[in-house]
Amino acid sequence: MIRTALSLTILSTAMLASAPASAKRWFEVELIAFAQKDNEQLREDFTIENPELDLNRTLDLLTKGYNSAGQQACLNGDSRFDTRPVTSRFVQQDASWHCGDGADYMEKFQQLPLTPYAEPQEHMQSIYLLNEEQLRFDKVLNQLKRKGLEPILHTGWRFPEQSKKRAPNILVYGGQKFEQPASYVARLDAPDNGFISLLGQPEPRAVKEQDPAQWELQGWMKIHVRHYLYVTSNFDYHYKSDEGNLESARMSQFTRVYSGDIHYLDHPKMGIIFQIRKYRH
User: Which range marks the domain in which residue 261 is found?
Assistant: First the structure.
């Protein structure tokens, strides 16, 4: 009996050691971000300078989805996404000829789609964006609209359980584009040979300098597992003040959540409703 039990223990240990990485638990998260109604009685001061969010060290799932939505609009004949010069549009009328895969359709958006496009997938190999048909918050979305609230983003993704150290910061952004103020600086062009001629001074030229555009919602969300699910989020909500200046409000939260429950991150300027669900377990 002891020998049999020992054999079973060795066999089970070997099976666990050879188990694939996909054996870890997987989850999916769905979220809706929305803008709050303007409240004239709000006395909170959002002019406090916050350190800039580090969005470079994030996992970007959305940009490809937004770009795909722009390409589809181009194929459907939406002139906003036509990347050709104006003269070429009259010569070549068929929009499908110029809606290539390598074009940057993101720069054409002034307002991002509510839901970035994603091909439907069902696997546990890598983190991926949910397709629109895989989202379940239609009733929540309709409730927000009936209350006069403006949805900014409705999306979700699937991910494996990971520690706080290993879980990535997922880039989250959407809504309206706000262009940054541009400035011009004078620069002197040196000759092609790299030497400045003694017989004449190089002509200065005006060079436009402009910081990247800001989106209405920009930030990131991290979900890690340590017995429970934990959500760390950092978001900036950008808006125009009554004077026309671009302002921002920071929302940073850390919370423990339960799978299956609907949770709400609240801020006077914006809100996020999200749910984490078990996937295939």
Answer: 26-40+51-61+112-179+206-279
